[in-house]
Each structure stands twice: as C-alpha cells, then as structure tokens.
Design a protein that fits this description.
2 domains; 13 helices; Aspartate Aminotransferase, domain 2; single chain; Aspartate Aminotransferase, domain 1; seven-stranded mixed beta sheet; three-stranded antiparallel beta sheet; binds pyridoxal-5'-phosphate; alpha/beta
Length: 388
C-alpha cells in the first residue's frame, strides 16, 4: 500500500548552517568568551579581506545598527536630508529619523528597481547631506555614476548593501567604491548569516574610528592606549553617548565559516536564478534584470514581475502558490505606501510612478542555497501552472 504524502513545503528562505558553524559555536561556548572578542575581530578582518580594496570592517549586531552608525559618523544631523529610494526595507529610512534627519524618499528605475544618479541629481538641494543607494535583490546600483553626482553635489554616500554580498558594479566589488561607508546584513535570510548581524565597510579612517567608538557606548579605546599603562586594564574614557551595537563572538562564530562558503553560495544562487530565468522566459512576466557584462549579481532575491496581461494578479498568485505549499514574498511594499512615511512626508502614489508599476506585479520566489532541484522543480511547475 502506498500512502500519498503531500510534497514537502518549499519555504521562502532557509539559513545554510553547516557542521563547521555548529562546531565553532560550541567551541565559542566552551571557551568562556561569548560576547565581543577574538571571533568577532577575526570575522571583521576576514570579511574585510574578502571584500578587498583595503577596507576596514566594523562588525555590528545588525545592518540597521551599521547604517545608523555610518550616518552618525558622517555627521548627519537634525534637519538634514538623506535621499533614500522608496523601493527598500523601512530600516534604510528609519535610521535617518534616529538622527533627527529626514529621508527624501524618491522613485527608482523602472527596470533595475534601483536608485539612479539622475534621480539623485533631480532631488539634491541645500538640505541634502547624504544619499543611500540600495542594491535591490543583489543587483548593484551604478556606483560610478552615483559617486560622480555625489561628488558634484557634495553628498556623503552610505550604501545599504544588505542584499549585495558579493556583488559588483563597474567591475569593482560592492564595498570597495569611494563611498563613505557600505553596510552589509547577516540576518537569517541574507546571503550569509550570523543569525543577526551586520558589517560597516569603509576606506575612510575617520568613519571607521567613529563607528568603532559609537558601536560600544562611545568608549574611546585609543584613549585607553594613549593615557594608560598596559597594566591599567580597567581604564577607559567615554567621549560620546554611544550605542550598544557590538557583534557577539557567538554570532561571529557562525559568520567565520559562512565567509568561507560565500563564493560557493554565490555560484549556487547564480545557478538557481539562471534556471528560473530559463523556465519563465515564455511567461507573461518581466524577468529580473541581469548585471552589465562582467559584473556579479548576489542574487539575494529572485523578483519576478507579473505583467498586466498575466492571467491573475500578484495577490492571487501568491495565495495560489501558498495553497501548493510554496511561500513567496514581496520586496518591497514601497516606503511611500506605509502610513508613517506616507503621512509624515505627504507622499502620494503619483510621485512614484515606477515603484507603483513595480509594486502591482512584484513577487519574490523562494531562493536559497539549500534548495534542491526537486524544490525548484516544484516552484517552476507551480508558477507555470498559474501563468501559462
Ligand atoms: C535586511 C535589510 C536591512 C536590515 O538588515 P538587518 O541586519 O536586519 O538590520 C536593511 N536594508 C535592506 C534593504 C534589507 O533587506
């Protein structure tokens, strides 16, 4: 007798935690040092070395914390404005409010879903202090063009690179452009994870120094080195009301091994994305754009866009996928549609024609490195069944 089992559910994402990560966490627990210490230091050094370009890495407990630190370090102050694309997670904009500054929420490119240099040029004015490009799905913004307009308009550049490890623009890895700071996320569903975590990468010694001090209560460790003898381990100086944003060694223990697996993860994601693209080429959808030749896409997300001639709308599509045990998501509900951002800044849908068009059809399909061919076959069959 054969029992008929329903096929296993396909989650939207799953962390890929190996035995090395588990052993390292256990070793960390046994070591007696579980908060910030040698593993966190090693993690930030290893990841900075992976990114390259001589960047310094400052490990923190989330990308949100890292973005906050980076904006603070470049002097974003009450009343300043920071240009933020509407097609992002609320974290990108909320950190601007933490500092009493205001996000200038702007539309994105209709094709790449990214912020463009032209949009920055059109919106920058005397109040604009900084700009925050977000590399949506892992497809990098055009950082040469954005860097040029930022120099011309005297804007600081803080990249929200939560999706972009590893990605490149103009042949240069994200993290190594001339931005003031670049912030990566290691949240559970990102391309590598530490459970929760983030990294600020920067080439600028002053930004790195300020982020390090503000990451841990405004304690100046250089003062410790300058004014005390090696024996006075108890001495420290507080130079600012800092934050509590340090990464623990327990989290870094996971990350140390995730870094080693990152090139393999990227290759797997590339392959999964290519397979989706080929399978959906004849459907009423817009496929996610590819990077320019020679550049790397991190493929954190695979965002399909249902076209107006699709046989069902986005919400129905997601519900029908869920009925078949397949979890999809939406990246993103644009910021201008959320009550807080809409009402605080008087944002109306007609100010964001491209994001509105994207939001009518955007759906993110499951994409994760533990995805099996059978998992992907199920997703492909379900998508084709609904859209053909
Ligand atoms: C995940 C994400 C963040 C926040 O990352 P955390 O590490 O969870 O703070 C910020 N911006 C974007 C675009 C994200 O997707």
């Amino acid at each position: 007798m054969t029992a008929s089992h329903p096929p296993r559910a396909v989650p939207f994402a799953l962390p890929d935690i190996g035995e090395d990560e588990i052993a390292e966490v256990v070793a960390c627990l046994r070591s007696g040092w579980i908060t910030t210490g040698p593993r966190a230091k090693q993690f930030e050094q290893d990841l900075a070395a992976f990114i390259g370009g001589g960047v310094a890495g400052i490990a923190v407990n989330s990308a949100t914390a890292g973005l906050h630190l980076a904006l603070e370090a470049v002097g974003v102050s009450p009343g300043d404005e920071v240009i933020v694309p509407t097609m992002t997670f609320t974290a990108s904009a909320e950190v601007v409010r933490y500092l009493g500054a205001h996000p200038r929420i702007v539309d994105v490119d209709a094709g790449t879903m990214n912020l463009t240099a032209e949009t920055i040029a059109a919106h920058a004015d005397a109040k604009t202090k900084a700009v925050m490009p977000v590399h949506i799905a892992g497809l990098a913004c055009d950082m040469a063009a954005i860097g040029a307009v930022a120099r011309e308009k005297n804007l600081r550049v803080i990249e929200d690179a939560a999706h972009a490890l590893p990605a490149s623009s103009g042949g240069k890895r994200i993290g190594t452009h001339d931005s003031d700071a670049i912030v990566f996320s290691f949240y559970a569903n990102k391309t590598i994870t530490t459970g929760e975590g983030g990294l600020v990468a920067t080439k600028h010694a002053d930004v790195a120094a300020r982020c390090k001090v503000m990451r841990l209560h405004g304690i100046d460790r250089d003062a410790f080195a300058r004014y005390t003898s090696a024996q006075a381990a108890w001495y420290y100086e507080v130079i600012a009301p800092g934050f509590k944003y340090n990464m623990t060694d327990l989290a870094a223990a996971i990350g140390l091994h995730q870094i080693k697996r990152l090139p393999g993860f990227q290759a797997q994601r590339e392959q999964l994305a290519a397979r989706y693209r080929a399978a959906f080429a004849d459907l009423p959808v817009t496929l996610p754009p590819l990077p320019p030749a020679g550049d790397v896409h991190a493929w954190h997300l695979f965002i399909l866009r249902l076209t107006p001639d699709a046989p069902l709308d986005r919400d129905t599509f997601i519900a029908r996928m869920a009925e078949q045990g397949i979890t999809c998501s939406v990246h993103f509900i644009p910021l201008h549609r959320h009550p807080y951002w809409r009402d605080t800044y008087g944002l109306r849908p007609e100010m964001f024609p491209n994001a509105e068009a994207i939001f009518r059809g955007n759906v993110s399909l499951p994409l994760f490195t533990r995805m099996t061919d059978a998992d992907q076959d199920r997703v492909i069959a379900a998508v084709r069944g609904l859209l053909r």
